[in-house]
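Blinded run. Sample ID left blank on purpose so nobody reads anything into the name before looking at the predicted structure. Input follows.
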Amino acid sequence: MKKFEIAGLEFNRVSFANFFFNKTMLLGYFLVFLAGVGIYEMFELRYFSVAANAHAAGLDPTNPGLKDAMMLAVFGNVGEITREVPWTLFIANYMYMIYTGSGVIFLVALAELLNFKIVEKAAAGFMTVGIAMVFAGLFTIATDLNMLNMHWMFLSPNVKAGMWLMLPLYCTYIPFVLFEIYLVLTKKRALARKLALPILIMSIGVDVVEYYIQAKLFSMNTARHLWTEFPILTFYFIISAFVSSLGIMGIYSFLVHRKKPEYPELMSILRKGILFFISVLALYEIIAYMVVDKDWAFLILFGPFKYLYFLGYILLAMVLPFFLVFKPTNSHWKITLASLFTIVGGFAGRYLFVYGGNANPMSDRFGVGYEKYDVYEVASSFNYVHPHVGEILIVIGSIGIVLLIYKIFDSFFGITKLRDNHA
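Blinded prediction complete.
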């Protein structure tokens, strides 16, 4: 394939048809189209719902429900963070994509530092998938903020707000990761290895800062006492993200490398990684239930989300993958299947945390404001709303963002190819 070079980086010369109309791009277009349909659905619900108008205000200006209706007309309430309704599928997907994507980048940087040669050679592809997932997470949260919120976010900036913390975070993190990919592609291995440590630290920093951001948002939403009484909850996000990240790397290796000689060695390393982090995650879960009050553990284990917890999270994210990868095997389909389970189970865990963690609404006392119920009191109502079809379409469409970003990199730079380790 013909190439041209810019700043030491070789670009493939790709025809218009091959670049825009290959199978991966077409699938990405379709998924992004679904996201577009979902965005339209959300836009229509937010801004064109039946709400109060000037005529209604003139007929009954003292109606106590008029204020809420006017707020609906201006701001909408679909996908918004409020004290009365749970968070949305947007938040679950945002947290999943951000933590899993940064987890992939962290694990590749760690492999660089530990001198895992085969992972170093495949680093460009893995890191591209990771950064693509970060962009997909940001795409998801952008749809949740809606246009009016984003408009006023810049016109009347509140720099103490959780969302504003995202800007310096990702404006620093993303360029560092892209520069690392550049170093790998240009075979500057010595410098790439030096940069791996800052990227590794920043990947953990992303998880910690994101935890802080979510804590700020949760604290204004519902009574999530775990944020303050169980601060090592941040390790749950990090460890569970590593499990899902290894699953992503396993599926990627199956799709890209299964017919190549490096495949057995790559899958062997991923098998050991999945086994290790699943064991750590299981140990964490046991310790968590021993440390936190038994009444809280009872609510988690036997509450309204118990089926999702045991069948969606425990079974898929830990039990089945553990038995599939427990023994060394030449049957790579077991590792691939375990990878798929960790991806699905990891998302179930995020869904469980977002929806289950906000199932109990807060009480509202006049003159005092919103207060949490007693920590273990059975709430007077179970606050849960199934995701709207628009939310589902946008989340599915975010996968298209990952595919498009990855394929653009692959078309220009051939990131599926292994890179030698020499400088």
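Unblinding after everyone has recorded impressions. The first strand starts at residue 3 and ends at 6.
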